[in-house]
Amino acid sequence: MPKVVVVGGGISGLTLAYRLERLRPDADIFVLEKETTVGGTIRTESVDGFRVEFGPNGFLDNKPAVVDLCRELGLHDRLLAASEAAARNRYLFLDGRLRQLPTGLVPFLRTDLLTWSGKFALLTERFRRRGPDVLDESVDSFARRRVGAEVTEKLVDAFVTGIHAGDPQLLSVRAAFPRLAVFERDHGSITRGFRIDRRNRLAAGGRPSGRMWSFGDGLQVLINTLRCRLKRPPQIGTSVTLVRRTGDRWEIRDSSGGTWPADAVILACPAYEQSALLTEVDPELSGLSGGIPYNRVAVVALGYRTEELPDRLDGFGYLSPQRNRRDVLGVQWCSSIFPGQRAPAGMVLLRALCGGWNRPEVVDWDDDRLAASVRAELRQALRVEAAPSFRRIIRWRNAIPQYHVGHLDRLARIDARLAAHPGLFLGGNAYRGIALPDCVEQAGLLAGRVAAWLDRQPRSSPTVEAT
């Protein structure tokens, strides 16, 4: 019976263990999590009728990995689609007021979000030549080549803010937004690539673009179900302090002195934690994983009575381009995205994201200062004067890994170093995708590689349980 230890009980670690159990039902798999709960940044808290997501607010179905996993877990009938208004009504907070993002050609031509020169640059993107075959370039550089400065500084900046809370001048387009680079490579244009992708989706019976999903009780449902489906419950409160090779096997030790022998070990914890555990195994590999930076984000959830908002919130929310260096990255209108599921009757729930790559100091502000900053923003953007009836603040001091230019080269070097350590695998959102569908997809692929590696190994002798 091969023994496998997974370090990290976030969505990546849980999904990997679940998939591996089905690929190798004979394997004895342990999931070790240092926190007292599993799920990583995915956590849902219900207080006074408000349902607050600590991390992601939902997931898109443009990749089938999460939907397929939910179907396999028997959760498909419990999936909750975001409202049509959330997909249709999205805004930018620009020059002191909200501007709705156009959803068609006529609204695009009428909007004052862009000047006529900016509109022309976007409309003629498909006629621009394919860029040079460079090894890597920033999102900012790529976008300026394709759609010009104005679209980059207004739309692309906000787009990057909403997904990575990062700096488009630092993020690698091929690592952070690989579809854009593929569209240019395969179709010569990103607008042509999106049009072809949309046509293919419609031909397959799907929607023209991805739709957001969650559960009525929040994303915690997925975490709880995964945890319960594992043969062995995750070992929570177990902080791993050492990973080392002993003979032809691996040895994992925790802070209480426990020892976990294993044929294979998968590090699915954050990259900086992986780095600390790899110091003795391979200093160069440790440096490579530890060199992946993370940003800092604070989540400020505020609840109001419906009548305290001058206007009815009917949409997803808004983003602010980070070239403005505002305290608030954007605000999600949670009770409009999932009506009737995120706030009690007669109330609304807003969730502001603060900090990000360019304003890390915001996360260290005390609760009152953070809330005051968000309220000042809401007063300007939504004309909300009332004090909130509900407040919940969550701080992530290592929130989202940032795929800076050179990230793909870093991954190639990491893979080369791992080849020298049979039975050692690295996973998690620090490497090949930060979104929930990416994490689930990559965890499944990694489970396949671990299972294939185990298949090639001779049968192990029986060993004692972890002590």
Q: Layout of SSEs?
A:
Layout: E1 3-7, H1 11-23, E2 28-33, E3 44-47, E4 50-53, E5 59-60, H2 65-72, E6 79-81, H3 84-88, E7 90-94, E8 97-100, H4 105-110, H5 116-123, H6 139-164, H7 173-176, H8 178-187, H9 190-203, E9 212-215, H10 220-229, E10 235-236, E11 240-246, E12 249-254, E13 259-262, E14 264-267, H11 271-277, H12 283-290, E15 297-305, E16 317-319, E17 328-333, H13 334-337, E18 347-355, H14 367-382, E19 390-396, H15 407-418, E20 424-426, H16 436-455
Helix pairs in contact: 1-10, 1-16, 5-6, 8-9, 11-12, 12-15
Number of helices in the DSSP assignment:
16
Q: How can the largest sheet be summarized?
A: 7 strands, mixed
Distance from first to last alpha carbon: 18 Å
Major sheet: arrangement of strands = 8-7-16-17-18-15-19
Domain count = 3
pLDDT averaged over residues: 94
CATH topology of the largest domain: FAD/NAD(P)-binding domain
Level-2 CATH architecture of the largest domain: 3-Layer(bba) Sandwich
Given this structure, which CATH class of the largest domain is correct? Alpha Beta
Number of E strands: 20
- Which outline best applies? globular
Helical amount: 25-40%
CATH fourth-tier homologous superfamily of the largest domain: FAD/NAD(P)-binding domain
Low-confidence stretches: 461-467
Beta-strand percentage range = 15-25%
Describe the structure.
The strands form 5 sheets. Strands 8-7-16-17-18-15-19 form a 7-stranded mixed sheet. Strands 10-2-1-14-20 form a 5-stranded parallel sheet, with helices on one face. The chain has a 3-stranded antiparallel sheet with strand order 5-9-6. A hairpin with a 2-residue loop joins strand 11 (240-246) and strand 12. The chain is globular and about 70 Å long. The chain contains 16 helices and 20 strands. With 467 residues, it is of the alpha/beta class. Helix 8 packs across helix 9 (190-203). It folds into 3 domains: 3-40 and 219-293 and 403-455, FAD/NAD(P)-binding domain, CATH 3.50.50.60; 44-84 and 294-396, Protoporphyrinogen oxidase, mitochondrial, domain 2 (Polyamine Oxidase, Chain A, domain 2, Alpha-Beta Complex); 114-207, protoporphyrinogen ix oxidase, domain 3 (Orthogonal Bundle). Mean pLDDT is 94; it is low at 461-467. It has helices spanning 11-23, 65-72, 84-88, 105-110, 116-123, 139-164, 173-176, 178-187, 190-203, 220-229, 271-277, 283-290, 334-337, 367-382, 407-418, 436-455, and strands spanning 3-7, 28-33, 44-47, 50-53, 59-60, 79-81, 90-94, 97-100, 212-215, 235-236, 240-246, 249-254, 259-262, 264-267, 297-305, 317-319, 328-333, 347-355, 390-396, 424-426.
